[in-house]
Amino acid sequence: MSQIPPSAASLRGAVDLSSLVNRAAAPAGTPAAGGAAIPAAGGPPGPGVSVPSLLLDATDATISQVLDLSNAVPVIVELWASYADASRVLAPIMQKVVLEYGGRFVLVRVDTESNPQLTSAFQAQTVPTVAAILAGRPVALFEGAQPEEAVREVLEQVLQLAAQNGVTGSAIPADGRTGAADGADAADDAEPVEEPLPPHHAEAFDAISRGDYKGAIAEYEKAIAQSPRDQLAIAGLAQVRLLDRLDGKSLDEIRSAGAVSPGDLEAQLLVADLDVSGGHVEDAFDRILLLFPTSDQPTKDALRTRLLELFEVVGTDDVRVTAARRRLTMLLY
C-alpha cells in the first residue's frame, strides 16, 4: 500500500489536475455521469454539505465540481474500466467501506474508457487506480484491487491528512444512504453491467463483497476447471489470491518481516505482493527477479509462479509486464 504524504507540503502527490482545473468550469449542479448533480461546496468547510449520494460518478466535464466539493469533504476518486476484473473486485469493497464512514467521505467513480483527460491527469497506468482530493488538491493512493482492511487503513490516513488541511465536513446524502447496511445495494447502483456474469464469476464477486476471499478463490477455480481459457477468471483468481495473502496484515508488518528476513522466500514474496497492491509494480518485479540468480531450482519455480500471477494482476498487456517478462525469459534460458 502506498504511503500517504504526511504533510500539507506534499499534498499534491504525483497528480496534476491543472489542465482540468483551469478549463471553463461547468455550472454548479450540472448532472454528472449517471444523472446525479455534484454541488459546488465552495467556502469554508461546514458541519455538513448536501450531496445527491455518497456514491457519485464524474466526467472530464464535471471534475471542477468535484474539486469544489473537496473543500468541505474528502473525496475519494476511483478510476475504473468495465473490461477490468480488478475494477469489479474493488468496486464493492470501496463502496462498502466508504458507506461505513457515514458521510465522512464521498466516493467519486470515473470511467477511464470515456474520460481520457481525467485518466491522464491521474496518471492511471492501470485500473483501478484510487486517489483522494482534499481542498482541491489530489493525493495518489493506490492501484489495483485491495483487501477491505487495507482500504480502511488508507482512508484512516486520508482522514488524518484532511484534518491537517481543514477538510473536516460531512456529506449529507439526499438518497439517505449513509451506512454499511447500504453497501450491498450500492454495487448494483454504481457498477454498470452490460451482460450477466457467468455463475462462478458472480459467486466470486459476491464472496469478495463479503470479505470471503477463500470462497472467491474456490469459485474462480471452478470457473477455470470448466473453461481453462477463461482469461477473466484467470485474472480474477490472481487478484483475489493477492487480496487473500495480504488480508489481515499491516504494511509495517510485511515490510519489517521482509527487511529482517532477506532470505525468507515467503516474506520477500509478500513484500512484492504489497508493492503491486500499492502501485509499485516495477519494485515488485525487481524484488522477485533479483532473487533468481542465487536461487535453487525449487525456489526459482516458486518465484516464477508468483511472478506470472502478478503479471495477471497488473495486466498482461502492461508495458511493465512486458519488460519484466523479457527479463524472466533471459533468466530462465
UniProtKB/TrEMBL annotation:
Gene Ontology CC annotations of this record: cytoplasm
Biased composition (Low complexity): 174-184
Record flagged with keyword Transmembrane: no
CDD domains: ybbN
Pfam family, one: TPR_20
Region: Disordered, residue numbers: 170-199
Recorded superkingdom: Bacteria
Keywords: Redox-active center
GO terms for MF: protein-disulfide reductase activity
Stretches with biased composition (Acidic residues): 185-194
Gene Ontology process terms (BP): response to stress
Thioredoxin domain ranges (all copies): 45-160
Protein family per UniProt: Belongs to the thioredoxin family.
Name of the protein in its database record: Co-chaperone YbbN
Lineage, top ranks: Bacteria, Bacillati, Actinomycetota, Actinomycetes, Micrococcales
